[in-house]
Amino acid sequence: MIHPNAKKAAAVGIAAALLLTACGRNDAGPTASSPAEAIASGPASGTITLWAQGSEGEALPALLKEFEAENPGVKVNVTAIPWDAALSKYQTAIAGGTTPDVAQMGTTWMGDFADSFDATPKEIDTSDFFPGSVKSTEVEGTTYGVPWYVDTRVVYYRSDLAEKAGITKAPETWDDFKALATALKEKAGAKYGVQLPAGVAGSYLDTLPFQWSNGAKLMNDDGTKWTLDTPEAAEALKYYASFFADALASKAVSTGTTAEASFVDGSAPMMMSGPWHVGLLNKAGGPGFEDKYKVAPMPKEKTSTSFVGGSNMVVFKKSENRDASWKLLQWLSKPEVQLKWYEATGDLPSQQSAWKDPSLASDSKLSIFGEQLKTTNNPPAVSTWTQVAAAADSEIEQIVKAGKDPAEALKSLQQAADSIGTGK
Predict the structure, then answer these.
(1) In the prediction, which pLDDT does 29 show?
(2) Which whole number is the average pLDDT over 139-155?
(3) For residues 148, 154, 160 and 165, what is the CA-based torsion angle, rounded to 10 degrees?
(4) Secretion signal: which residues (predicted)?
(5) CB 151 within 8 A of CB 310
(6) Which of 137, 287, 361, 422 is the most exposed, having the fewest neighbouring CB atoms within 10 Å of its CB?
(7) Alpha-carbon distance 318 to 150, whole Å?
């Protein structure tokens, strides 16, 4: 996030790993639900139980005092759950019928648990949310919950070293991106021109912006078949693999230093990451370092498309206080409330109008995230995604470390995905 401490950064990393290793459900997935019931009028009342992960769960009670003040008859009880315990806790609660009223859901968990969520009522206005974040709440044609906060991936690069190498503008295309990585190594003294995942958990996810930018789709339009083995995907992975083949990226899973350290010392001065790295890099680099690097949208082939992440807020079907729960989600969706949450935590607003605020619009780095969020995509919201992603990570490792042909790797992945199925 924007102003993270080490604890929050660790939570983000754990969350990312969880989202990619979670087990899918064995059932056939949620069926299309009937139109959601309307939300009763009047102020919220009664008790709302809310589960939230990591530092969000710790910070929410202070924010929610304002909601309770606006609705004197309501009380929100927040339970903070460590990210590494969240998956099993939700699975146990769903199995035992002991779910909270409201919960924070990682965007790639939606397909796993959607049949336990209450469908979003029509009173919830989604028109101002970033389109990609709204898509993350949709499962098999039904919308569940609301986008709470968002993040996306952009390119971070050492602009001071780029200038030393003779490049004065941000990379815009695939060719620009490759040229910058090459120049940083050959002319600016970097050991590697760019940091790219080399087969660890989540590597496939990090290749998706390249695939999407080249027009690849992971599933057919009705979500009934995986379409992983396509010319567009193969071309993107061939491009990705070229950085390792040309020694512009390290094949080692770990170089012994953190991403921040390699970026700051100039040994690997370009990477793709989310908004939390602004704060981490500023801290690692010390005073004045923020002027030595810039961020840019994902490099474009056909489009400049990135991954959209963050968290959604959902209401469970078994909620004992449904109407008040949805009123809470309406309140959390207000642009002015999201800006207060951003000021408190650094979590970026999912409401586009909030980005007009000077705290975001006038920031040269954060405004790029706002620009990128207009063109994003996310993995399919199906219960088997996490299993397919794990199989894909193995293929990325084979491509990077063993030199496996991307087209052959995609054939293997397609076979594995067909075997795993779509959960339908």
Answers:
(1) 38
(2) 93
(3) 180
(4) 1-28
(5) yes
(6) 287
(7) 27
Give yes or no: residues 99 and 135 share one domain: yes
DSSP state for residue 52 in the 8-state scheme: E
Strands (E), 318-393: 348-349, 376-377
Q: Half-sphere exposure of 167 toward its Cβ, with a 13 Å CA cutoff?
A: 24
Q: Is residue 338 part of a domain?
A: yes
Contact status, residue 70 vs residue 43, Cβ threshold 8 Å:
yes
Exposure string of 83-108, with b = 16+ CB inside 10 Å and e = fewer, is beebbeebeebbeeeebbbbbbbbbb
pTM for the model stands at 0.83
Kindly indicate the confidence band of residue 376, based on its pLDDT and cuts at 50, 70 and 90. very high
Per-residue confidence (pLDDT) for residue 253, from 0 to 100: 61
Give the per-residue pLDDT at 257.
59
The two tokens of residue 393 are 């990570």
Task: For residue 155, give both structure tokens.
Answer: 């390119």
Crossing angle between the packed helical segments 385-402 and 6-21, to the nearest 10 degrees: 100
CB-hemisphere CA count at 13 Å for 242? 14
150 forms bridges with which residues in the sheet? 310, 348
In terms of residue numbers, what domain contains 118?
A: 6-151+309-370
Task: For residues 145 and 294, state if they share a domain.
Answer: no
Q: How many domains does the chain have?
A: 2
Residues 253 and 231 in one domain: yes
* Predicted confidence (pLDDT) at residue 414 exceeds the cutoff of 50: yes
